[in-house]
Amino acid sequence: MRATIHAVNPAFVSTDLAAPGIARIALRSRKSRPWALPLTAVLLYPACIIAASHAINRFHQDGSLIAALAGLLALLLAASVLLFALRALLLLRSDSGHGLMRGALYVMFSTAPLFSLMYSLARLVHIDQNYAALSAVWTGSWITVGFVLNFHGTGAAPIADSRSPAALRILHGVAALCVLSGFLIAHLINHDLAVWSVKLHGAVMTFLRLWYRSKWVEPALLAALAIMIGTGIPMVARYSRRAADGYRVLQMATGVFVGLFLCSHVMATLMGRHNGLETDWSFAAGPTSLLDGVGVRDRLIPHYFFAVLFLCVHVGSGVRIVLLHHGVKPTLANWALYGFAIMGLIVTALAAAALLGFHVRAT
Questions:
Q1: Distance CA 333, CA 192 (A)
Q2: Which burial class, exposed, middle or buried, applies to 289 when counting CB atoms under 10 A from its CB (0-12, 13-18, 19+)?
Q3: Which residues of 157-174 are buried (b: 16+ CB within 10 A; e: fewer)?
Q4: How many CB atoms lie within 10 A of CB 213?
Q5: 165: which DSSP letter?
Q6: Cβ 323 vs Cβ 332: under 8 Å
């Protein structure tokens, strides 16, 4: 058993033996195209969403249990791109370089909000109902990414210093704190209140809008959001070129996901308001729920469900790093992250139940 472990784990192999050469070859083989599997899942993502939509519509028509199971399976397959991309990122975490590949994998990890963002952009050019055109744009774009990754090479050239400037990190943190305290925390709590009733959610939303839609606050929040995303992009680019532990990989992946989600969500809301729509609960979840069979709202299930959890994980990752920089023991700093993750699971569970049509009171 010990010989087997030494053959597959370079950390346990002596450089004086022939076995390390075999281990390095095996490891290089696994790392040669780690993007291939997640890219395949990304290419199949629209088909999974459309298949889920058809299955749910079929269930509404005849109550078929097979259709319900097919819809669930299609959504699980769509969500699997997260796991494939995260696995590839963790596989590369100990290497320097691979900046382009890591960047592409972070975006693959964020397929759900990216797909919804593309859908919102399609509305601007009035092709949002042309699923063939949308699929062609999606497929063509990602095949191009695959060609670039294939011919770009996988050389792991070391980077002298890819740390983000302190000023950039501080600005990112301050902007994020403004968005969280000025909008997101209250907004998410209000989403959870929809579990009690949509009416309660609407009443609280009307009250909160007095604050975050006021003349001066809304532009300030949008500016803070732009700063948060604008400072996040160069930090992801820098950290993508250096070796990192699993915590850093998770922080970067969830940050890209949340950034794309906020771009998609804010754009959809502003477009709805521009078109004279009331961007209330029905605008987000449909007449009854995301499973009501109206349109292709099923695409929003992975889009919404992971966003809150990943937001909490990303914030918790940032808090963990701040605690470590202030001398807090790694064990305690890690538990701070775990606490945020647990909180994210609870908030996500409540919001997901409401989005899927569960309400304690019907009115």
A1: 28
A2: middle
A3: eeeeebebeeebbeebbe
A4: 12
A5: P
A6: yes
SS3 129: coil
Q: Domains of the chain: which residue ranges?
A: 23-355
How far is 39 from 7, CA to CA, in rounded Å? 29
DSSP state of 286: -
For residues 52 and 40, the answer to whether their CB atoms sit within 8 Å is: no
Length in residues, the chain: 363
- The residue assigned the tokens 């291939």 is 36
Q: Which amino acid is at 307?
A: A
Alpha carbon of 106 to those of 28, 59, 240, 310: distances in Å? 21, 34, 9, 13
pLDDT of res. 152: 76
pTM here is: 0.87
Q: In the structure encoding, which two tokens stand for residue 160, read together?
A: 């002298």
Q: Which two tokens stand for residue 49?
A: 């969403």
Question: What is the band of 9 on the pLDDT scale with cuts at 50, 70, 90?
Answer: very low
For residue 202 the two structure tokens come to 């609407």
Helical segments of the chain, H only: 2-8, 19-32, 36-62, 65-91, 99-109, 111-124, 131-152, 166-179, 185-193, 198-212, 217-239, 246-274, 281-285, 300-325, 330-355
pLDDT digits (tens, 9 = 90+) for 235-267: 998 888 888 889 999 999 999 999 999 999 999
